[in-house]
Amino acid sequence: MLRASRCGKYLAVLALALASSLFAITGFAADRAHVVVLATGGTIAGAGADAANSATYQAAKVPVDKLIAGIPELAKVADVTGEQVFQIASESFTNDNLMILGRRVSALLKDPKVDGVVITHGTDTLEETAFFLNLVIHSDKPIVVVGSMRPGTAISADGALNLLDAVSVAANPESRGRGVLVVMNDQIDAARDVTKTINIKTNAFVSQWGALGMIVEGKSYWFRKVDKKHTINSEFDIDRLKELAPVEIAYAYGNVGKEAYSAFAAAGAKAIIHAGTGNGSVANRMVPVLRDLQDHGVQIIRSARVWGGFVLRNAEQPDDQYGWVVAHDLNPQKAKILASVAIASGMDAKALQKAYWEY
To answer: Do 7 and 139 reside in the same domain of the chain?
Structure first.
């Protein structure tokens, strides 16, 4: 009995030693979340010539390994690894960039060793990328998109805390199944709802229907969920999507003419997002132009250039009669993302309108 007891203690000590050795070799602990940071560039990776430069700087300069190394507090939150997917300013993002990023996110989240993904991104098109991922990634694991309004070299830079908060949210099991999240300025927003409303200031991102929650000193406080389809409930799938359909946005204004709409159609656009005034309004002289484009196979989607509210179907134009679609509460840039994905997936005008209600 004594010999067996000593043997058992020896095996326990050996197991503990092996576990410690495994952690030393891999850098991962079994009880900690593994979060992968996918870096794409942007202001969060930017650098200015002087600490006083908060608005004048070069974006996409700092590689992901330096971003992570510069925040030692990350090691207290999760096991963090990084990959440099792109190193560009987000205004230069293309459909090809979206597809490459989406496929990488999908592949990572299928790995049982990965618990969540954080994407660092420039703020100019951050909301578009986040919404795209929200539509096409089939996983309930946390996906968090994060950026900053000031470069890391600036006094009062916001990127380090934003990234720490993003990793904290991605490592939190409570974040699962909530769709793609945007974390900035202590706030957790839904990719579907959030938009950049101002430059320069750190509180640039706002959700029309309110934030999902707040994060304070690494702790998430949740207040609502999104009552729209996303991620695991989406009928769209990055693994089946070969490319995005060409969709363009035409901005409405006083004295607007047909030139932009006609040029987009001639260039091969499958749909045109009409960023209308007010309730997605269409100037009387433009109605026959848009109807003709619709008759020739170009989907016409009424959105609005105003921030807030939503476009009412058949309220400003007889959409049913014309076969037009309304983007509901999605702004023009997000309306474009949904149309690009939906049309590439084979949706006609009727199915596309249903998608705008549901997503």
So the answer is: no
For the whole model, what pTM was predicted? 0.90
Which residue out of 40, 43, 129, 277 is catalytically annotated?
Answer: 43
pLDDT in tens, 27-60: 445 589 999 999 999 999 988 878 777 677 788 7
Residue 278 and residue 220 share a domain? no
Longest dimension (CA), the chain: 97
Reported as a single tens digit per residue, the pLDDT across 305-319 is 999 899 999 999 999
| Count of other CB atoms within 10 angstroms of residue 146 | 27
Taking the C-alpha atoms of residue 93 and residue 125, their distance in angstroms, rounded to an integer, is 8
Q: Residue 262: helix, strand or coil by DSSP?
A: helix
Q: Which pair of structure tokens corresponds to residue 52?
A: 């006083």
In this structure, are 193 and 293 located in the same domain? Answer: no
* Judgement on whether residues 229 and 289 belong to the same structural domain of the protein: no
43 carries an active-site annotation: yes
Task: Tokens for 230, please give them.
Answer: 């996303």
Q: Any residues with CB less than 8 A from the CB of 268 and at least 6 apart, and which?
A: 246
Q: Classify residue 79: in a domain, yes or no.
A: yes
Q: Above pLDDT 70, what percent of the chain?
A: 91
Q: Residue 1 domain-assigned?
A: yes
Cβ–Cβ under 8 Å, residues 303 and 276 = yes
| Domain assignment present for 151 | yes
